[in-house]
């Protein structure tokens, strides 16, 4: 009984209740106690009455005992601040808790605090901070200022809104420059924050400065510690011959890497051969990073803290030092490399009939690019690839059968392109375009998905612990809202309640090629839950996969590295099985780091998009409404793959109300209507590159004519909605984090192949003198990161 209910749940419920008292049923509801459990719960509460934790409230119900302190009901979490001063307490196993600005005057973004939940405004709970448990940052960025002889730094408002006093530093900036400050003393209400300038990031407004600030804001500007670099440097330059013992020798098997033209780290290679039964044998060989990154070594601890490599259009922050990521662990052509191979047999219909996992050594026969492979598939002659045309054809045929089977079982495919930044010869953003995808991308995607599923099945069959990649079904309320929206477009989804992924997949196919397709894809994508890592397998909704994990990118994802270690412990080579508690901590940390990395990538892309239009104030553009809420709407410009916001305040020709069921703003007097998918002509009103925002307004208050295909012509069937005139700027559209390319939208499946992000070199960016209009971005390989 004591394990069935938690004392902390009861104390926190009473601590946050009005009057700090609750009746029995109210308390049971707050603690999520079912009707069947309530007799046992009532008996269990008597033990809390006896030990003084509770008292019987005057009249009825329960209240806290006299000896119960705030610490008894305190909760712990990480603070995430907003630039307007307030914040949220983020907890591992519960909802975020709002923190008013008055509660965090000395708390920085990223700090861990203890707090209690108390009644707040508008009937919601708020946090009262008791103490800072752990400081989350050793350095911050900010603007260097002087007032006479007084020197100080105003930090990035997303991190803290105070002042940092300075002691002599290593560099002397000019007033106004953005700097990095190493903190010596933190604010505590009795003393000021004190720090030392260690680096000058640049002048305010410069692109490099803006990007560096965002990266620091997310805590990702971490330098490799000395012991990590020392361990990396101590690794051999070549593979020692004695490490090959016990490994299967695949060096004579034609094996290839297929990546983008700019890739520098190659962690997966594929080979294929026909079988007598008209099927094929596919080998997916992945760099054996775990051979070099041993458990609890400096490299391992740093990889755990980073969790993932982080990719930007002009640089990458690697999970591992370059000697490993671009060297010893990279499957470069003509060089012996240690690998872990998933060998799979498929019949002619793409059904997997056999899986074998083993340690191997390979020697890549060629470094292929997506573009070159696509040309071979189109019948062209390409040096270094055309001689392997039979293998290319087999890869393509397998892709088609695997893709067909995946779609048949209900895997979700969203056709939303990724953005790519185009740089000019001086390294300045020149354009944002939609990334191109071809069948070579899809080949790798399907083979990586197949390998990830095969290895997941391998662990389950052996009843061995591992870290799974899980994706929960969409929220039923959001799905209901989507259904109403789809019906307003004249589409009738054949599902109700909690739809299966198969039902959603069939719906996506029915709207393919229709005027409503793009808008419906965007809205459905935002109903998806975020994919994450977990030690317990609950399936992958987006891929319609019963078992799935990440095996294929250990150079740039920590969970893949752990999966390799666990597999090798089963194979008997090294290591030991991890306990589920350790896997739970690794899964949570990896999910958190992935989320932080993804948000930072989005924010940097937004900064670059805004920077692109910094000199276009007053220019007019054609666009399409891509999102809408009670505060206004978002417009995707047609000339550039850039999105801006039109605030409701700027629609001054009428009184508009928001109809949430159909995502429409409707004018009360003129009946003018703004809905998702509608064309609109807009003027750039303001650009804020530092926060990645573009403000637009309708051009002359008039919308562009509707296209001939009739997009958006259907009137909404629901007239329900909230009436609103003006109002504050909206918080922006929420980005989903499901494996379906959620967030910034990506074409292809809702699962992708687990490849990670693009394999560009660390710190590599478009340098002066490089060919003008150089494309770069994450689109080429993000599909592998699902």
Briefly summarize what is shown.
The protein is an alpha+beta fold and 786 residues long. Among the domains are: 7-66, Winged helix-like DNA-binding domain superfamily/Winged helix DNA-binding domain (Arc Repressor Mutant, subunit A, Orthogonal Bundle), CATH 1.10.10.10; 74-134, Beta Barrel (OB fold (Dihydrolipoamide Acetyltransferase, E2P)); 139-217, OB fold (Dihydrolipoamide Acetyltransferase, E2P). α4 (207-217) runs antiparallel to α15 and α9 packs across α10.
Report the portion of residues in β strands.
25-35%
Helices and strands: which structural class? alpha+beta
- First-residue to last-residue Cα separation: 41 Å
- Write down the CATH class of the domain at 139-217: Mainly Beta
User: How many β-strand stretches?
Assistant: 38
CATH overall fold name of the domain at 139-217: OB fold (Dihydrolipoamide Acetyltransferase, E2P)
* Discrete helix count: 16
Question: Residue share in helices?
Answer: 25-40%
Biggest sheet character:
5 strands, antiparallel
Overall average pLDDT: 84
CATH architecture of the domain at 139-217: Beta Barrel
Low-confidence stretches: 702-738, 740-774, 776-783
The best one-word shape is globular
As a whole number of angstroms, the C-alpha radius of gyration is 28 Å
What would your notes on this structure say?
With 786 residues, this protein is an alpha+beta fold. Among the domains are: 7-66, Winged helix-like DNA-binding domain superfamily/Winged helix DNA-binding domain (Arc Repressor Mutant, subunit A, Orthogonal Bundle), CATH 1.10.10.10; 74-134, Nucleic acid-binding proteins (OB fold (Dihydrolipoamide Acetyltransferase, E2P), Beta Barrel), CATH 2.40.50; 139-217, OB fold (Dihydrolipoamide Acetyltransferase, E2P) (Beta Barrel), CATH 2.40.50.640. Helices cover 25% and strands 26% of the residues. It is built from 16 helices and 38 strands. The strands form eleven sheets. Strands 6-5-4-7-8 form a five-stranded antiparallel beta sheet, with no helix packed on it. β10 (150-155) and β11 form a beta hairpin. α4 (207-217) runs antiparallel to α15 and α9 (389-409) crosses α10. The longest helix is centred in the C-terminal third of the chain and has 33 residues, at 580-612. The radius of gyration is 28 Å and the shape is globular. Residues 702-738, 740-774 and 776-783 have low confidence and may be disordered.
